């Protein structure tokens, strides 16, 4: 697995959460969110970064005609709001809980800067993570802007295969065990859920893929 979101297979929650550090543990608390609750809105002050202890979080924005654009759907162990580390003063995106029991570890920007200043290895990991995340986001936005729906889906499946897939020794097929619902995938590639169902079933009928709720198999003849 070559995951960009989880840097070098490191769970960022375990690495970064102040609750893990003695000097912060006594005064640190977690924030709980229900499904559809917003963690922050566009134009909110950017004075914290956030780590997901439990649940899923959607990152996105609204374009000029009010259409929602989903930039990422993040899960346990992942970091968001990280542009605050780089000096962002106001949010240019929203963050919204997708689960009824989402638990977030908020980290003040000053605290993050202290941790980065005291540990060069830690600091390099953070900057490397941010750089990889921006590259992945740029590729996804290029898909939304310049590719048709089927191409978006095929390239997203290849991305899923890179992040969550493994080869099946017996058949050579690629097996993807992923954390996304069909609604999540549709949002991430900018199509409706009915359109996604049609495209997935077309690929299934063409013996390109097979799938169930949490697993996708890409047949070796199509890989």
UniProtKB/TrEMBL annotation:
Top-level taxonomic group: Bacteria
Domain spans labelled Cyclic nucleotide-binding: 12-91
UniProt entry tagged with the keyword Zinc: no
SMART domains: cNMP, HTH_CRP
Keywords: DNA-binding, Transcription, Transcription regulation
All copies of domain HTH crp-type, residue ranges: 147-222
A family per Pfam: cNMP_binding
PANTHER family associated with the record: CRP FAMILY TRANSCRIPTIONAL REGULATORY PROTEIN, REGULATORY PROTEIN YEIL
UniProt name for this protein: Crp/Fnr family transcriptional regulator
Native organism: Winogradskyella marincola
Lineage: Bacteria, Pseudomonadati, Bacteroidota, Flavobacteriia, Flavobacteriales
């Amino acid at each position: 697995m070559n995951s960009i979101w989880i840097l070098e297979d490191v769970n960022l929650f375990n690495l970064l959460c102040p609750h893990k550090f003695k000097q912060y543990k006594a005064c640190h608390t977690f924030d709980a969110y229900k499904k559809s609750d917003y963690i922050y809105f566009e134009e909110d002050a950017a004075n914290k970064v956030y780590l997901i202890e439990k649940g899923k979080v959607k990152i996105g924005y609204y374009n000029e005609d009010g259409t929602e654009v989903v930039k990422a759907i993040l899960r346990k162990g992942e970091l968001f709001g990280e542009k605050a580390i780089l000096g962002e003063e106001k949010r240019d995106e929203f963050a919204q809980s997708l689960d009824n029991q989402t638990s977030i570890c908020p980290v003040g920007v000053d605290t993050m800067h202290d941790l980065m200043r005291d540990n060069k290895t830690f600091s390099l990991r953070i900057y490397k993570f941010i750089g990889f995340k921006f590259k992945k986001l740029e590729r996804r936005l290029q898909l939304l802007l310049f590719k048709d729906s089927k191409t978006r889906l095929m390239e997203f499946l290849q991305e899923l295969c890179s992040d969550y897939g493994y080869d099946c020794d017996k058949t050579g097929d690629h097996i993807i065990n992923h954390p996304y619902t069909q609604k999540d995938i549709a949002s991430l590639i900018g199509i409706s859920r009915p359109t996604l169902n049609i495209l997935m079933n077309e690929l299934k009928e063409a013996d390109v893929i097979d799938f169930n709720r949490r697993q996708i198999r890409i047949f070796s003849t199509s890989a």
